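If you are new to this repository, start here. Below is one unmodified record pulled from the training split, so you can see the exact layout before writing a loader.
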Amino acid sequence: MAAGYLDILRARHAARLLTGTLVGRLPNGTAHIAIVLFTRAEGGSYTLAGALAAAYGLATAVGQPLLGRAVDLHGQPRVQLPAAVLSALGMALLALVGLDALPVAYAAVIVAGVFTPPLEGGLRALWPTVLGSEDRVHRAYAMDAVAQEVMFTVGPLLVTVLVSLWSPAAALLVINAIGVLGALSVVLCEPSRTWRSAPREAHWLGALRSPGLLALLGAFFFVGLALGSITVAGVAYADDQGRESVYGWLMAALGLGALIGGSLYGARQWAGAPERRLRVIVALLALGYLPLTLTPGVPAMTALAALAGVFLAPAIACSFIVVDRHAPRGTVTEAFSWLVTTFGVGAAAGTAVAGPAVELGGTAWSFAVAGAGGVAALLVLMATGRVLAVPVRTPGVVAGSENDRNGAAEPGFSSGRKA
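And here is the target side for that same chain:
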């Protein structure tokens, strides 16, 4: 397992691109907690904090596919770095102005969200160029999913440390300055500088004209809904237990499960169509969420949370492969960005639904939202099986080879993207 990941990281530019992307995405991964802590420190209510965080999230959902399309059209450096700078300036404006002028505060978080650089989609577009072979790219997708779990675990801890050492405003400034440095590291790297999208058909729908991609996005909206609902359900469970620390244990267990699952998934080669494999993984994901409705004691609930997380990273990693197979030629960054957006919107919806579920039926009902989300995702994948069975790219093909630049693809390679 470790040897496979080390093989990827030893590839030229791979470690730098992965690290730079994770660092560059740090502001996005910590924005919600940073905004909430800043708003509360400025005397704002939880309602205002939630509204500002929601405005940021919705702005990010709008900006990601638009910037992803811009990357496909104009290359990575021309879009990623300016976007990172503008996003950081938005957060800096919030830190400097505060809440005295609420319209300015809302404008600041909206600017920060809209211009969040699509580094996540950009990295996945670069993997074929950097790694070449299909097996290595698929393993990189799994490693990418695992690395995300690390970032979403370490990021909030870093914010809380910065807040305790300085202030919430300083945390906003430092985190976003670090994010710009991460984006700069990526765009100065040779694969990012020389990457060019394959020629694309002019179409206003862009990546969304792919029926298979639409089916996948529909399923992952519900996966996001399930995950978003667990964040609220976990708080409700901790309140029931009378210990705030319980929430941290549940979220840590969920992340640990995802780390284990993603690591095991990436440790082996998988035969067969990834679309069929994704249905099996999502079915197991749904089964993992359902026992949470039992809400047993803390030790057992922590174990169930770890089990629920096991199939999350494999589902995400497998979805990356499916996106690459169904993205229309020349829209790969945009397609990956749509996945990020849909997942995020689903998570926001899950958070919104789980709150009323707690009030209506208690903690078990809020965890039932997660189970229902997993089941709904599986039903979407099953209902769209025929659509997903017809990928845009030839099965067994990896994008980004030198061969396709000359229009002659060999088995195992396709749509060249390096200039």
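Two things worth knowing about this chain: The radius of gyration is 21 Å. Confidence is low (pLDDT under 50) at residues 394-419.
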